[in-house]
Write a sequence for this structure.
């Protein structure tokens, strides 16, 4: 056994790297079935590199496009932050030193290293630690110290003070339908908060988007900011900034990185609680906030800030007679119909983009009932309006 840690240096030979680069579109199954490409490296090992590299193409273009990167198993890449999210995160920290206590593949550490003088990357899996150390050298991140150990244990043993502690704990598999709590994560942050605040005044915690705001706030305490990060209208992560002894108003910051640019929206949490909303039946335009805003629960604040009226307390669609810039999607209202089989059939639609808002039937049930396929330029919203009438809005996208 010459690779006790499972980091096979032979993968980094020039001819092997050339093969991995030239065969990025190769069919993995056929590669596994053919005779070995190299005498001393299995085709399975090559296939693993190709597969993992392919996973990086859109998520981690810097790793995908750099020669000499050693790719871990696919799972490590699936669990890592995307480059877009990691860059965003790095802008939230500053100072001398940061410890990334759950280092993983090293994407976050790499981006933090451009903002801080010294980064400590702790990863409990010795193989992944070794892979991260190799790749960070290849990427010329000179100020990162990789330590193959449990980050929480490293903090316990350390006498140093850090400007920031970053944690991206993994979620243990929990039963479907259960509300995620912080105690479902490993390491269990709640047990270690005292230790963390003994070593730093600032903690940046990443959690799954499924974690409920109110649970996170009540369990963590000292929350200064919550960031909701979406990429192409899919919420990827929640970021919690904790400051030792903080008891002021929390800022909620939402960001959606889309092909059209970056949409940001922020508000103090107290504003959402105190805002009053005006309701109206559909006017000329319908506005649908992006996924980050919807996750943040800014249902009233978004209405007030943009001078929009809401269709119903529980229908998170907004309306106005003017077309305005908006962090989300905008639609022109063409037809407003009561939800009635005859009237919908009369539209004669073969296909449409269908959404439901505060409506008893699912999109699948509606498609089946009316024989409407997916796609096209027509947008149908099935929603309950402020007069409690179930309604169909036929719209075009602006």
């Amino acid at each position: 056994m010459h690779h006790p840690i499972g980091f096979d240096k032979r993968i980094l030979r020039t001819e092997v790297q050339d093969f991995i680069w030239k065969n990025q579109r190769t069919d993995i199954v056929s590669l596994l079935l053919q005779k070995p490409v190299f005498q001393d490296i299995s085709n399975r090992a090559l296939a693993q590199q190709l597969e993992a590299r392919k996973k990086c193409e859109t998520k981690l273009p810097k790793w995908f496009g750099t020669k000499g990167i050693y790719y871990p198993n696919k799972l490590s890449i699936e669990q890592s932050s995307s480059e877009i999210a990691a860059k965003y995160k790095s802008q939230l920290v500053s100072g001398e030193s940061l410890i990334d206590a759950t280092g993983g593949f090293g994407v976050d550490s790499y981006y933090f290293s451009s903002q801080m003088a010294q980064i400590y990357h702790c990863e409990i899996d010795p193989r992944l630690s070794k892979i991260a150390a190799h790749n960070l050298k290849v990427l010329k991140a000179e100020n990162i110290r990789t330590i193959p150990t449990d980050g929480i244990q490293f903090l316990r043993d350390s006498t140093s003070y850090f400007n920031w502690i970053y944690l991206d704990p993994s979620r243990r598999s929990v039963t479907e339908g259960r509300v995620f709590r912080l105690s479902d994560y490993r390491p269990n942050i709640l047990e270690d908060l005292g230790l963390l605040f003994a070593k730093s005044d600032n903690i940046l915690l990443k959690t799954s988007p499924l974690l409920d705001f109110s649970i996170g706030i009540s369990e963590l305490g000292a929350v200064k900011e919550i960031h909701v990060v979406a990429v192409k209208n899919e919420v990827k992560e929640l970021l919690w900034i904790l400051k030792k002894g903080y008891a002021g108003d929390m800022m909620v910051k939402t960001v959606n990185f889309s092909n059209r640019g970056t949409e940001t929206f922020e508000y103090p949490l107290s504003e959402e609680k105190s805002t009053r909303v005006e309701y109206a039946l559909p006017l000329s335009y319908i506005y649908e906030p992006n996924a980050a805003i919807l996750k943040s629960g800014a249902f009233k604040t978004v209405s007030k800030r943009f001078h929009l009226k809401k269709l119903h307390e529980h229908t998170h669609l907004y309306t106005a007679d003017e077309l305005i810039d908006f962090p989300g999607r905008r639609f022109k209202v063409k037809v407003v119909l009561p939800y009635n089989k005859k009237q919908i059939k009369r539209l004669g639609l073969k296909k449409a983009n269908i959404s439901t808002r505060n409506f008893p039937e699912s999109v699948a049930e509606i498609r089946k009932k009316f024989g409407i396929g997916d796609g096209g330029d027509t947008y149908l919203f099935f929603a309950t309006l402020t007069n409690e009438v179930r309604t169909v809005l036929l719209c075009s996208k602006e």
